Structures are given as structure tokens and as C-alpha cells.
User: Which sequence fits this backbone?
């Protein structure tokens, strides 16, 4: 007897698919479409008879990549975003993994308290975090100079948010402090999923804590490490709110903290006396999407397939 098609699956999936299509798929393709049209700041090159923008092909991308008025800000934002991502991967991921390794120890007490305290900043509003650190690092009433002065190191203090060389690093460290709980929880869950039999066998073979972690636990959770890296990549190239909360749309000083998100916002919506340019804004957004897509594809085909997945 032939089975009936499970129509109830369509009924259950339709609401989610409909909402996802309206708010994600359609805006994505419409943004890509708009990026192939042109319009100056006053919209004077719109066809007055039809009200349709002028199709320009890939000219907007040529302007974005090579025109000196746009290329400087694009490549500067891309460079800063790449540096922002590298700092997160090289600092946040190892720290999260180290904390998760300590929390997974059976001898450690008050694990729940430690997990809560470490994960708590991730639940805070990014705007509030930015405002608080603006006060903490303020030259007028900030506390670093007081703390350094108390131990005789006041000469080490600098206005870290006001210097081109240190502003992006400082904001990156603030972001790492706030979100280190996310990789910690993912790694912690992966470590708890390792069977006790595997760990007990390593102890019988004479393995100590460090060698067990390095040669047993780490290879077993490597897929989770790769997942965390790509999630960090996508999240960092969509970053906007922390930069906006701390340095504003200018992403100062001298655009040294400018990321793709802030560059897109200024381009699309404008700022101060500069009007927004929707078509170039769509071009910046499409270029950002392409960069993220390339990174995800590299992860899927060059990294994920090479990871050994252990069945236990």
C-alpha cells in the first residue's frame, strides 16, 4: 500500500518558511538587485518618466573597489574587520576553551556559579556595555589611570580609545570580555559529551590531565572548535552595535575602528550633512555578504571535510 505524503509537515514548516522568506530571502535578493543600479545623492539620474533607477551592471562594484572616494573606506573597513576577527579567534576562542576545560573538571566546585558569572556579560545589552566602558576608559573620570597610579605605573596609561593604534584593539578586548561566555558554553557542552569510558581508558594508559586534554579531548571536540570559528567570523563581519555605541558612526579616531557594518550604515543612511545613497549602500551590503559567503564556503569545503569525526 502506497504511503500518503505527510502534508502535515508542510503545514508545520510553512509559517517559519514564510517569515524567513519575507524578512530574509526577499531582502537579500532585493539588495543584490539594487546594487546593480545607480543613483546620485539627489536621485537626479532616475528616469523621470518611469521612476526606475538606471541599470549600471557592476559599475557600483568598480566604484567601491577602485574609486578613490570609496575604495579607501572600503579597504580600510575590510582590513579593520579582518583584524577584529583575528583578535577574536586568537584570544577569545583559546580563553573560552581553557575556561571550559577547567569547568569540565569533576573536582571543581561551584561550577554553576562560575558558568553564570562568565556568561552573564553576554546577556547584557551591547549599548550598555559600550556606555559603561566609555565611562571606565574616560580621560576625565576613568579608573585605569587611578589603578595604575596606585601601583606606581601611571606612566603606562594612555587614552586607548583615542589613539589610532590602540582603539580597535581596545574595542576588540571589550567585545572578547563580553562574549567569551559563548565559546565557553559550546566547548563545555562538547567536553561533557565525551564518554567517561574514553577518559578512563586514557588514565589507565598513564595519561595525565594535560596530555588527556591535548591528545584525547581536543581532537574529539575539533568540530565544535571549527563551528565556533565560523560563527565568530560571521558575527564579526556583521558587527556594528559595539563600534556605534563606543565610537559612533565616524568609527574614530580617523576611521581606525571602522568596520563593514558602520561603513554600510554611513553609506546607506548617511550621516550629518551627507545624504544616504541606497544603491551604494546595497553594494556595500552585497560585498559584505560575498565576503562572508566566501569564508563560509572555505570552512565547509577546506576545513570541515578534513575534520575527523569520532563516533562513540
Assistant:
Amino acid at each position: 500500500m502506497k504511503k500518503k505524503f505527510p502534508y502535515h509537515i508542510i503545514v508545520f514548516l510553512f509559517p517559519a518558511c514564510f517569515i524567513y522568506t519575507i524578512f530574509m530571502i526577499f531582502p537579500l535578493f532585493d539588495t543584490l538587485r539594487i546594487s546593480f543600479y545607480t543613483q546620485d545623492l539627489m536621485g537626479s539620474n532616475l528616469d523621470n518618466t518611469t521612476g526606475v533607477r538606471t541599470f549600471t551592471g557592476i559599475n557600483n562594484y568598480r566604484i567601491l573597489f577602485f574609486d578613490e572616494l570609496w575604495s579607501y573606506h572600503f579597504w580600510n573597513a575590510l582590513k579593520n574587520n579582518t583584524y577584529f576577527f583575528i583578535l577574536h579567534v586568537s584570544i577569545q576562542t583559546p580563553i573560552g576553551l581553557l575556561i571550559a576545560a577547567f569547568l569540565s573538571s569533576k573536582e571543581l566546585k561551584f561550577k554553576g556559579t562560575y558558568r553564570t558569572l562568565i556568561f552573564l556579560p553576554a546577556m547584557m545589552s551591547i549599548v550598555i556595555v559600550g556606555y559603561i566602558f566609555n565611562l571606565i576608559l574616560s580621560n576625565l573620570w576613568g579608573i585605569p589611570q587611578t589603578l595604575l597610579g596606585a601601583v606606581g605605573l601611571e606612566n603606562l596609561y594612555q587614552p586607548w580609545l583615542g589613539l589610532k593604534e590602540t582603539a580597535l584593539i581596545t574595542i576588540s578586548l571589550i567585545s572578547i570580555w563580553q562574549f567569551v561566555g559563548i565559546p565557553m558554553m559550546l566547548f563545555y557542552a562538547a567536553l561533557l559529551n565525551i564518554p567517561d569510558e574514553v577518559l578512563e581508558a586514557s588514565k589507565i594508559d598513564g595519561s595525565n590531565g594535560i596530555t588527556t586534554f591535548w591528545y584525547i579531548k581536543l581532537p574529539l571536540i575539533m568540530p565544535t572548535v571549527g563551528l565556533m570559528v565560523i560563527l565568530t567570523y560571521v558575527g564579526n563581519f556583521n558587527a556594528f552595535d559595539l563600534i556605534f555605541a563606543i565610537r559612533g558612526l565616524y568609527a574614530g579616531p580617523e576611521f581606525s575602528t571602522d568596520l563593514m557594518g558602520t561603513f554600510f550604515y554611513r553609506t546607506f543612511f548617511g550621516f550629518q550633512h551627507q545624504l544616504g545613497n541606497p544603491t551604494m549602500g546595497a553594494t556595500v551590503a552585497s560585498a559584505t555578504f560575498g565576503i562572508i559567503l566566501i569564508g563560509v564556503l572555505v570552512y565547509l569545503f577546506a576545513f570541515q571535510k578534513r575534520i575527523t569525526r569520532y563516533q562513540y
